[in-house]
Amino acid sequence: MTLLSNASQWLEQLKVALTGTRQKMANVSSCDDSQALCAFDFEEALESVESGLLKADVGLDTSDEILKHVRLRQKKIMSYSDLRHELSDVLGELLGESVALKQSEGGLSVILMVGVNGSGKTTTLGKLAHRFKQQGKSVILGAGDTFRAAAQEQLGVWADRVGCPIIQKKPGTDPAAVVFETIQTALKTQTQIALIDTAGRLQSKTNLMQELTKVRLAIDKALGEQKALATVDVLLVLDAVTGQNALQQAEGFLASTGLTGVVLTKLDGSAKGGVVFAIKHRYQLPVKLVGLGEGLGDLADFDSQLFIQALLPA
Q: Which of 61, 82, 164, 239 has the most other CB atoms within 10 Å of its CB?
């Protein structure tokens, strides 16, 4: 279930969020099927599709892959309506089934947020804390961003707002030590969810990425014998506005932390939502959450079929 009340509401909000991206894809419906005099030209139609994909920031490699699979369906495509239907199927096959957050049945569920500064890590973490509290689950926050006092203060505000404990230390403290204590405290108090923030860093800074590797190892060490019962999600938070630049971020973080998924934020302010397909195509990383606005309820589980439905022009 999403934070929004139902799938239809999610779809309508997603359509609004994807307005910019959908406008880039409008070439797909450049000719009305109801017009009898409109001659359908497959190659010309594919050019429109390619243009729309590139404008939506799907990326050249991923667009080529999508077009290759559409070409394999040429015999089925006799109109723009057919084209939209087959394109929808191809995009659905590329994204695959939606992948939910990992949730432990009888142990601790750990969610580690990573990403560059400004991507929305701390805000996303706060919204997730609110979600889990609304579901009646116990939550603890770990302020693993010890490089910026402002980041710890921001997370502290979320802890007060949501009503959950937080582990935070003075600036400059070893982030791995904070993470270790957060996990140990969660286990001792039988807390169900541990949400851990990390310092924003560029994926090109080797020493900082090594620090993230240390943080990830600290989680396993702190879990100890409880590791078998626990689940760990390592989520890369990406700003949708960055488009293809997000791919370089994904590569660096994937190597250092063993990413399990992506959170795509600020989708409502971007015309580059097509990067979802590029992320899945290049790195096989599922988008698990999307940010559709500033409100507490504007963070939703990613639904691949609804996303495609909202993306393609009717």
A: 239
Q: Letter for the amino acid at 195?
A: L
Cα 261 to the center of its chain, rounded Å: 7
Sheet containing 287-291: which strands, arranged edge to edge?
166-167, 139-144, 193-198, 109-114, 231-239, 261-265, 287-291, 299-301
Which residues lie closer than 8 Å to 25 by C-beta, 6 or more apart?
Answer: 52, 53, 55, 56, 274, 311, 312, 313
The secondary element (H helix, E strand) that includes residue 300 is strand 299-301
Measured from the Cβ of residue 159, the count of other Cβ atoms closer than 10 Å reads 21
Which pLDDT score, from 0 to 100, does residue 7 have? 64
141 phi, psi to nearest 5 deg: -105, 140
* Residues 127-155 pLDDT 10s: 999 999 999 999 999 999 888 778 889 99
Predicted confidence (pLDDT) per residue in 97-115, tens digit: 999 999 999 999 999 999 8
In this prediction the pTM is 0.88
Angle between helices 60-71 and 275-283 (to 10 degrees): 90
Cα angle value 181/291/259 (rounded, 5°) = 50
Whole-angstrom Cα distance, residue 240 to residue 309?
Answer: 18
Q: Rg of the chain over CA atoms, in angstroms?
A: 21
pLDDT tens-digit map of 232-267? 999 999 888 877 777 777 777 887 778 999 998 888
Residue where the block lists tokens 């851990």: 196
Residues 6 or more apart whose CB falls under 8 angstroms from that of 149 comprise 171
Q: Is the pLDDT of residue 166 over 50?
A: yes
Distance CA 18, CA 210 (A): 36
Q: Which residues pair with 287 in a beta bridge?
A: 262
Rounded-to-integer distance, Cα 57 and Cα 80, Å: 22
